[in-house]
Amino acid sequence: MWSRPATESDLEDVTATLTAAFAGDPLWRWAFGDLADLEVLWRLLIGSALRYPWLRMLDGAAAAALWIPPGGTELTHDEEARLETMLADDVLELLDRFEQAHPRERPHYYLSLLGTRPDRRGEGLGMGLLAECLALFDAEGVPTYLESSNPANDERYEAIGYRKIGSFTTPDDAHTVATMWREPSIG
Predict the structure, then answer these.
(1) Which tens digit of pLDDT belongs to each residue from 135-165?
(2) Could you give the domains of the chain?
């Protein structure tokens, strides 16, 4: 297989990759002016996701995809409580908007984070990793959900079968996040 599940020993490399990948993201730079603060959040999310086998990565952490399986949660209750002490009110409000927009009607895999190291962009690694994961979920017959924090990526997701199902904004209405759903491909 092209990718592999990340392990505890990959935590720092995957965190570095995803922090660098989101360094220019309009939404996450709005929320975190200091990349070190974003890195703390990503490390918490990535560390929590290691309890599932769906944090997938390429060799050298060139790209990584953090999936939450059906019925799973991004954070444990203790981690959520810790998060509330770490973040500013407007960022907590933004995260609540993510939570409120998340569909609950059907079991699905949730793509929390997907990113490629900046020095490896343009090689198709991120989309290749995404396609590999989607093939696994398609084989299970399970849909997937994601939020697109950068409008520049919306068409890329739509080209592989995602459709916009809604949106929400930052608390100051400066940035819009598209919510996207993909039914499993058959055959």
Answers:
(1) 999 999 999 999 999 999 999 999 999 999 9
(2) 4-182 (3.40.630.30)
